[in-house]
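Late entry, written up from scratch paper. The run itself happened at the end of the previous shift, but nothing got recorded in the book at the time, so transcribing now.
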Amino acid sequence: VQLQASGGGLVQAGDYLGLSCTAAGRSFNSLALGWFRQTPGKQREFVAYIGGVTVNRAYADSVEGRFTISRDDVRNTVYLHMNSLKPEDTARYYCALRLRYTGSSDSNEHDYWGQGTQVTVSS
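Output as recorded:
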């Protein structure tokens, strides 16, 4: 399975940015997906996940109310819509596929990872 993330870039604080992640080699259908982010010298941190069958969602406290995760199983794509971006959102963002129906905020519980896409928010 190969996950390809795209949509990162340089934006100003308060702007919107949308990320997408498409899988090749395996259907997403009913499987859980997550977004994580990482800055140099820090551990990868949970951002959001979306479950499979029930499509339940969860968010990190730091992004709750500003970010929205969604999925399109026909296009085999997961999205992260990021509103009201802050400089502290600057990181490399990774999508991940979990071979379970339920989502997880634990990066160790995901089976496949994309290469990441850089998001930089200027103040």
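The chain has a mean pLDDT of 95.
(Scratch paper discarded after transcription.)
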